[in-house]
Write a structure and sequence with these properties.
By secondary structure, the chain is an alpha+beta fold. It has a single domain, classed as Zincin-like (2-Layer Sandwich), CATH 3.30.2010. Helices cover about 55% and strands about 15% of the residues. The protein has 4 helices and 3 strands, in the order αβββααα. It has helices at about 5-15, 50-65, 75-90, 95-105, and strands spanning about 15-20, 25-30, 35-40. A 3-stranded mixed beta sheet has the order 1-3-2. β2 (about 25-30) and β3 form a beta hairpin. The longest helix has 19 residues, at about 75-90. The protein starts with a helix and ends with a helix.
């Protein structure tokens, strides 16, 4: 399973700024003047596990280019969120470990 610091390393390697962003939500991904950014509202994040889940999902938005705006319709938003979460799941739960866990339960 990927560790939190590895996710920060990925963001650094991709030149994505991660900022403490005070907002209603816990996390947001965006582009400002051509620069990719992830805003995390650290004051609303309770655990490192939650931080890891949020950061991996926001990186998923970046890698799958699954962005949307406040004006996007709900169907489009849902599709973009699904794509970002899919990347997150692949990173947080490697296929071989998932397969092994399933086989152990059989």
């Amino acid at each position: 399973m990927m560790e939190l610091n590895k996710l920060y390393d990925i963001a650094e390697r991709e030149n994505i700024n991660i900022i403490n962003f005070q907002m209603k939500n816990k996390a947001i991904t965006g582009n400002y003047k051509g620069k990719s950014m992830i805003g995390l509202n650290y004051s609303k994040i309770d655990t490192s596990k939650e931080e890891k889940c949020l950061l991996s999902e926001e990186l998923g938005h970046y890698y799958y280019s699954s962005y949307y705006t406040l004006m996007s319709d709900q169907d489009f938003i849902d599709k973009q969120e699904y794509r970002a979460k899919k990347w997150s799941y692949y990173v947080l739960i490697p296929y071989e470990k998932l397969k092994s866990a399933i086989l152990k339960r059989i």
